């Protein structure tokens, strides 16, 4: 086994905002780990300068366009997004001198639209529609990019510069921060960039490290990984994760196993994390931690499982952390301790 490669993402003052992306702490969850008898570690992606794991993809995609000569000063980046990729692209764009046009479906947390407007992105909000409908935000972003002179379409789903950013930075950082001593990596997929890129880096180091998909209900990936068939069941309020088709970034993921987590468990975990571990995170991060905890139980005592804390709770204060919203969605947290796991 080779030594875990050192992190290759640099934090350089000269690179400004862009140089501050990555090299996030790997945070232990001591109370959860003690309860399970297994070590659970969360990669604190909410500490990226744009507040989410998608800052890495935004940087990777923009730098790839620059290297290929497709994006020049004053250029325009267009993207369809649940929010976080747009936020990352808007800030990278501001720092590097690009305009951003962001298309979002109308069913996401209001905080994310507000941030994009504050950052000066041109925001287009379209009615939420399935991918098979041409009105879907993904297709609208493609059409805007095609109709805008000098624009590039980030296309985070099919553009594997997204996955490559994680293979080059997130994966090596996890290996370096654990000294290569981890047994499993558990993560949800929105585009699959995180699980594919990190998974590839981990597998290149040691094929024995298990790469596990955490899926919300309403997504077809759990079924795909466990049966080979794309099939979705149920629904979820989780934002930025879950998908019903196979996209290029997910297709490159070496996934060994999958598990599903429902919204009640996600909500219980989100509130437990802030109350017991002092970690204020978004729904996908809470789902990841719940899945990591459940998966760890299938491993021997003392095993180490790493997951991703994708973004912070601030972005979801009007939903996941709002009493009225929790009541309306019938997910008011009520569990004592970790009995929901
Ligand atoms: N969590 C949140 C909150 C996100 O916005 C995203 C990206 N859509 C993810 C998780 C999933 O990341 P990835 O696209 O790398 O699969």
Q: Please, could you describe this protein's structure?
A:
It is built from 13 helices and 10 strands. It is of the alpha/beta class and 341 residues long. It has 2 domains: 18-47 and 170-328, Rossmann fold; 54-153, Rossmann fold. It has a 6-stranded mixed beta sheet, with helices on both faces. Strand 3 (76-80), helix 4 (84-96) and strand 4 form a beta-alpha-beta unit. Helix 3 (54-67) crosses helix 4 (84-96), helix 3 (54-67) crosses helix 7 (161-178) and helix 11 (263-277) packs across helix 12. It starts with 15 loop residues before the first helix and ends in a 13-residue tail after the last helix. The mean pLDDT is 96. Bound molecules: 4'-deoxy-4'-aminopyridoxal-5'-phosphate (PMP).
Nutshell version of this structure?
With 341 residues, this protein is an alpha/beta fold.
SSE blueprint:
Layout: H1 16-19, E1 26-28, H2 30-36, E2 39-44, H3 54-67, E3 76-80, H4 84-96, E4 99-105, H5 110-118, E5 122-126, H6 137-147, E6 151-153, H7 161-178, E7 184-187, H8 193-205, E8 210-216, H9 221-227, H10 248-251, E9 257-261, H11 263-277, H12 283-296, E10 304-309, H13 323-328
Parallel strand pairs: 2-10, 3-4, 3-6, 4-5, 7-8, 7-10, 8-9
Antiparallel strand pairs: 1-2
Helix pairs in contact: 3-4, 3-7, 7-8, 11-12
The chain binds 4'-deoxy-4'-aminopyridoxal-5'-phosphate.
Residues 52-54, 82, 84, 188-194, 239-241, 282, 284, 310-311 line the site of 4'-deoxy-4'-aminopyridoxal-5'-phosphate.
